[in-house]
Amino acid sequence: MTTDAIEQRLRTHQIATLNSRAAALRHLVLQAPAPVIARMLGYTDQQTSRIATATGSPWSRYASGDDHSP
Asked: Fewer CB in a 10 Å sphere around the end CB: N or C, the chain?
């Protein structure tokens, strides 16, 4: 089953998927640094950092660093 098919089924039952996804992302950035969440879920660091700042995340000042630099 594709994500589109799941989303269509949820909409058929009047379950909002976008709001749920946004709420889940806001909850995640409260529990872990935004760059970590971004890499895990395929978002950009800027997207998750913006959400972390808006939610008042304790991780909003986290410096992700670059593990691949010499």
From this structure: C
Q: What is the CA angle 47-49-55, rounded to 5?
A: 105
In this prediction, residue 60 carries a pLDDT of: 63
Element holding 36 (H helix, E strand): helix 34-41
User: What one-letter code names the amino acid at 59?
Assistant: W
pLDDT at 68 over 80: no
CB neighbours of residue 18 within 10 Å: 8
Nearest by Cα to 62 from 25, 37, 42, 26: 37
Q: Retrieve residue 28's tokens.
A: 């995640």
Rounded (10°) CA dihedral 58, 45, 31, 60: 0
Answer for the pair 35, 64: CB distance below 8 angstroms, yes or no: yes
